Amino acid sequence: MKFIPENPADIFIPEMPLIEILLRGIILYFLILFILRVLPRRSAGELGAMDLVFILLLTEAASHALGDFTTLGDGMIMLLVFVICNYGVNHLTYHYGFFRKLFEHRPVQIIKDGRLIYRNMRRELITKDELMANLRENGIEDVSDVKKAFVESEGNISFIKYEEKG
Question: Are 159 and 138 in contact (CB under 8 A)?
Answer without folding.
Answer: yes
